[in-house]
């Protein structure tokens, strides 16, 4: 792929556009003959991101080409979203009440929990093609009327095929398809925000800059895109949305400013597994776009990032009422998925019964979707188990997280807020 794109750049068959803010903004506006990008807050993270890409990411030819395409896609989406909001004011009038938000570190079982809940038709959820392309094309009214088909699933299928061709391990790490329930990380990317960029590229300056910012404008735009997706789905407005992305661990205050009545489900897992799996996920994506990725440096970054997410999450929980949150442990889901999900439904004041047949079907199907296990180890990234356990000792004690080798399963209890036993148990 790199050789082909390099040849394309050299012969002029593929244009090599500069990764520069003003050029990208002007090019996108010219492409779609629109000039309203909405709130210009996104330009600040965009500028920092581009600086990191140009000076830190060591992009190969495929990385250069993919970055060009990604920025173009996101900017086109912002322009077309603003047109939809202007043409169809009913979109922004759609309420988003009492969303159910799954909050947990990368690789803590958020996807499993999200997809189990998503089979329940009492909830609205994003599908994978909608987080890749949340903004419908201008002719989407004809799709709603049944005259045309929506081309976004086909676009998503091609993007996934390219990613799997570039690194087949991505399928085992995060199995998905165009219509699978998916997280809203792509809606945050629309504001040039979020850890998706950090799992894709080595961009430490951008990462640290974002960690010092208030993400509220990105979440406001995410909420408007969610309204647009709901309108395009013709989803009932009285159904709560299911949301989840590890980004929320860093941005809980912003999330709750935009969704003050959110119900939060926190997921937890042995930190040794969290750090190793997160580093492996980032490694397997970063090596697609750069030939100079250092596994030890990357491992250190995701050790730091995971610790920061846990710290921010624990700090934010101090101001969240107990009645608005519940904790779910990865190992409990492994041992007794039904009992754990029953607790979740009790927290949501819903009867789990109607959803159980679909949940069983999903669990059976997910085994077929995941073709091979995700294999990784901390040692690949120059990190020892003991270092991780020591660094996350407070987290493990607070939420009674068992080490696979040191604590018997029956001695564990699920906790709610800072060590208090869950009332639902």
From TrEMBL:
Pfam family, any one: Sulfotransfer_3
Keywords: Transferase
GO molecular function: transferase activity
InterPro entries in alphabetical order: P-loop_NTPase, Stf3_sulfotransferase
Record carries keyword Transferase: yes
Gene3D superfamilies per record: P-loop containing nucleotide triphosphate hydrolases
Protein name stated in the entry: Sulfotransferase
Species, as recorded: Qipengyuania gaetbuli
């Amino acid at each position: 792929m790199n050789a082909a794109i390099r040849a394309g750049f050299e012969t002029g068959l593929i244009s090599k556009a500069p990764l520069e803010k003003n050029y990208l903004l002007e090019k996108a506006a010219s492409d779609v003959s629109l000039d309203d990008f909405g709130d210009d807050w996104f330009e600040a993270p965009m500028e920092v991101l581009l600086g990191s890409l140009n000076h830190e990411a060591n992009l190969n030819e495929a990385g250069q080409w993919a970055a060009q395409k990604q920025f173009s896609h996101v900017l086109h989406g912002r322009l077309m979203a603003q047109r939809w909001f202007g043409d169809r004011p009913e979109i922004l009038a759609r309420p988003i009440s009492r969303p159910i938000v799954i909050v947990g570190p990368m690789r803590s079982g958020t996807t499993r929990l999200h997809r189990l809940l998503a089979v329940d038709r009492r909830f609205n959820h994003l599908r994978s093609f909608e987080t890749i392309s949340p903004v419908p094309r201008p002719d989407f009214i004809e799709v709603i009327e049944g005259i045309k088909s929506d081309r976004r699933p086909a676009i998503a299928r091609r993007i996934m095929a390219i990613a799997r061709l570039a690194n087949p391990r991505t399928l085992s790490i995060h199995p998905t398809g165009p219509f699978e329930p998916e997280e809203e990380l792509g809606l945050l990317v629309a504001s040039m925000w979020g850890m998706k960029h950090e799992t894709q590229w080595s961009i430490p300056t951008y990462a640290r800059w974002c960690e010092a910012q208030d993400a509220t404008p990105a979440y406001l735009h995410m909420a408007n895109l969610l309204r647009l997706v709901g309108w395009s789905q013709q989803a009932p407005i009285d159904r709560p949305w299911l949301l989840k992305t590890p980004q929320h661990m860093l941005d809980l205050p912003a999330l709750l400013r935009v969704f003050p009545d959110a119900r939060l489900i926190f997921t937890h897992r042995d930190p040794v597994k969290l750090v190793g799996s997160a580093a492996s996920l980032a490694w397997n994506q970063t090596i697609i776009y750069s030939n100079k990725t250092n596994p030890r440096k990357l491992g250190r970054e995701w050790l730091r990032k995971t610790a920061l997410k846990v710290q921010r999450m624990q700090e934010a929980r101090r101001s969240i009422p107990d009645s608005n949150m519940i904790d779910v442990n990865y190992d409990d889901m492994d041992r007794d998925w039904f009992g754990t999900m029953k607790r979740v439904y009790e927290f949501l004041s819903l009867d789990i019964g109607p959803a159980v047949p679909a949940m069983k079907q999903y669990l059976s199907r997910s085994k077929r979707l995941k073709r091979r296990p995700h294999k990784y180890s901390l040692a690949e990234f120059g990190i020892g188990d003991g270092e991780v356990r020591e660094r996350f000792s407070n987290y493990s004690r607070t939420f009674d997280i068992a080490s696979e080798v040191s604590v018997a399963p029956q001695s564990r209890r699920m906790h709610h807020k800072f060590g208090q036993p869950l009332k639902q148990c």
